[in-house]
Amino acid sequence: MEGNLLMKRHTHAACTSIMVGKKASIDGSNYIARNEDNFVANWPKKFYVQKAVQNRHETYVSPYNKLTVELPETGYRYTTSPDANQDEGYYEEDGINEKNVGMSATESVTANEKVLAYDPLIKNGVAEDSMTTLVLPYIDSARKGVQYLGNLIAKYGSTESNGVEFFDKDDIWYMEIATGHHWVAIRIPDDSYAVAANQIGIEKIDFSDPENYMWSEGIQEFVEKNNLNPDFDGWNFRHIFGTDTKKDRHYNTPRVWYGQKMLNPSIEQNPESSNLPFLRKPEKKIAIEDIQAILASHYNETKFDPLGSGSEEDKKRYRAICLSRTMNSHILQMRDTDTGNQAVEWKGLGMPCFSAYVPFFTNANAIDESYSFVPETMNLDSAYWLYTALEFVVESHYQEFVEPNLDYQKELAQWARQKIAEVDKESQKLSGTALTDYLTDQNKIIAKHFNEATRAHLADLVTQGTELSKLTFKMDPNL
């Protein structure tokens, strides 16, 4: 049973996260974002709005590890991105609730054997499959998200080592759970960004500054009692709880290196360095397009690009950010307003290298039927399958299709900005239920536009592709 449990757990263990503070962004928004990756190329996802609940008497039982939790009687409405097949668990992954608090869970990480020896992971504890379900409907600030999840870990323990993102209009918090009961969290400074890639990243913890750091009860005593701090001075969570292995230097750190290279191009760093900083201040203000470009990247314009012209050895050297097994890329945006439409969830199903990011307003009762309709086999009425078909066609003739595909993404990115501006203007006239109903209708209009544009793009590529077959023969007219 233990072996099967580990196999299941690792099917959702390969993500890349980005957090951007409001003073580091070009529009004053807070952003949290992540590529949800699997270890299989086809793992369908849904996206819809989970309704608020009241007077509920229900016990949650995880399909994955049988964690059993009595649920609160009331819960907020929230957007959710669960697995289409929930035999292994819900894996709701990300969303924003009606209190404009967002969560993305999880960034799988690994703790070292020294700390796990004294506080092992708990088989029936809180795991990725349950986190969003058990936390997001019940929190009204990012800080309370950390506290709420921390209380669950204290009571039930953690099954995995994970990083979790929380945000609201004021704050971004990143929480790293390392062992069965111990974790820390850091408030991302407003003028900074962070990239996380399957490795414990949080560095120094200032225990005299609870406004910007949080931690599990007894963590200092745990480290001191078991002689776990390798440093002569200071208290560095990465050094104490993290790993520094050959796998890290080929699977994890290069992704952090590339994300920082895109936002701080003048800083020279080694992609295999074990000392890349967790926090950085960008060289220019970060736009939504910059975050999209990082999540859609595969070491573009370097010799390490698997689709580039480098040597076969270099092209296979590092694990890229965007992969064939990326099934749900999301960017959660909280704009610095109180208009009721400030929360936007940008959804990129399938490989974001070739797909479009679709903006949805989360103060809504629904997204669109095409995002909750996910049959087992391909059907282009399903958003998941539509974007999956597109990625397959583009990659199959990458050199011929990359430019028209980039044009398609650019045109839709421009349309999205124009549409959001249009909705913002109209939203100023509305409030309450009328605003929620309006944004619900706009979500469906947005989905329809992107779906139609994607079908048209796919049809164009398939039509062009008929001329690219190698099964052709040109007759010599002199024969």
Automatic annotation (TrEMBL):
One BP annotation, GO: proteolysis
Enzyme class, UniProt record, top EC level: hydrolase
Keywords annotated in UniProt: Dipeptidase, Hydrolase, Protease
Entries under Pfam families matching the protein: Peptidase_C69
Keyword flag Heme: no
Keyword Hydrolase: yes
Sample GO molecular function, one term: cysteine-type exopeptidase activity
EC number assigned by the record: 3.4.-.-
Catalytic activity: an L-aminoacyl-L-amino acid + H2O = 2 an L-alpha-amino acid
InterPro entries: C69_dipept_A-like, Peptidase_C69
Family: Belongs to the peptidase C69 family.
PANTHER family: LD30995P, SECERNIN
Protein name: Dipeptidase
Organism: Companilactobacillus bobalius DSM 19674
Lineage: Bacteria, Bacillati, Bacillota, Bacilli, Lactobacillales
